[in-house]
Amino acid sequence: MAANLNDQIEQLHAMISAGKDVVALTGAGISVPIGIPDLAHMPREASSVLASESELERNPAQFYATLHRIFLDPIVQKGPTVSHRALAALEQAGAIDGVVTTNVDYLHEIAGSYTVADVWNSFNVNYCIKCGRTYPLSAMTASAIPTCPIDGGYLSPAPAHNHIAQSQPDLDLAGKLMRQADMVIVIGATGYYSNINRTARVAQINPAVTGFDRRSELNIHAPSDEVFRTFG
């Protein structure tokens, strides 16, 4: 590990310790280490599970196979990243207030975070396309073609379909966390920029240069797992 990176990690520790209300804002980059691609590298066939229910109804076997390969299998088989687990530990230790995420993979909750605003819903919310009943992530991984036990309708993941409203409680929580934050750790994110409190200190962790670079007091251009592996 380069000395410069060591110095940056020490600065990150200091910023977190100095903060009164510290919030993490995470994007696709935090989940890349377990094989979930970020938006820049998302395969074209992902659009079949991130567009509409027409593909689900037309070819359910292909729909769920794609959903498993790109999203569900990495979530279940490889689990949360080092970074997800570190953020959960920081929250449990009282060092951060919670997480706002634009991801839909539910990995923060699996890792043990309990204050999480899933602003685009998550794969832990799945709707029967017939009756509208909801089922958790485990229902999607229980069979190759998951169906509602009540009426046999196919289960549709909430994040995949824009006709399903965003969760208002999550949006409200995200707004509250962002408004009160005096320090924000941005991890693998390229969006939600305008929602950060203007007076908050910002530290960014991302291998790539992003729109957050100018806003951030600290830019650590390294994979987040490399940074958070030193937390413990």
Automatic annotation (TrEMBL):
Q: Which PANTHER family match?
A: NAD-DEPENDENT PROTEIN DEACYLASE, NAD-DEPENDENT PROTEIN DEACYLASE SIRTUIN-5, MITOCHONDRIAL-RELATED
UniProt domain Deacetylase sirtuin-type: residue ranges: 2-232
Q: Which domain of life is it from?
A: Bacteria
Alphabetized, the UniProt keywords read: NAD, Transferase
What EC identifiers does the entry list? Answer: 2.3.1.286
Gene3D superfamilies cross-referenced by the UniProt entry: SIR2/SIRT2 'Small Domain, TPP-binding domain
Q: Does the keyword NAD apply?
A: yes
Q: Name one Pfam family in it.
A: SIR2
Name of the protein in question: protein acetyllysine N-acetyltransferase
